[in-house]
Amino acid sequence: MSAYPDSPGFKEGDTSRAAAEAMTYRGKTLRKTVYACIVINPGLTADEIAARLGESVLAIRPRVSELRASGLIVEDGKGKNKSGATAHRWKAR
């Protein structure tokens, strides 16, 4: 398994590691899809990206974090997520 952010990360424990390993292949595909979505639609929040792609926010938010850590995307203002909390908007670098 590659290192974060090129592969899903985990903090500690067997369950976290297992979840990261299970997402390794799908995560790579989702990262590419999320990045393409941001390039085409700059200014979306992670939740808005998830909605556009028909994916769970639990699958998309980590991919956004990986793209940010890779330096491929940067913040583009603030928005709100589904719960009403402040969320970053994203654009490609």
Largest sheet: 2 strands, antiparallel
Strand content: 15-25%
CATH architecture type: Orthogonal Bundle
Return Rg in Å: 13 Å
Strand order of the largest sheet: 1-2
What integer is the average pLDDT? 88
Helix/strand-derived category reads alpha+beta
- Tell me the overall shape: globular
Please report the first level of CATH classification, the CATH class.
Answer: Mainly Alpha
Output the CATH homologous superfamily. Winged helix-like DNA-binding domain superfamily/Winged helix DNA-binding domain
Number of beta strands: 2
For the record, the count of structural domains works out to 1
> Do you know the CATH topology?
Arc Repressor Mutant, subunit A
Low-pLDDT regions? none
Strand and helix order: HHHEE
Oligomer: single chain
Terminal Cα span? 26 Å
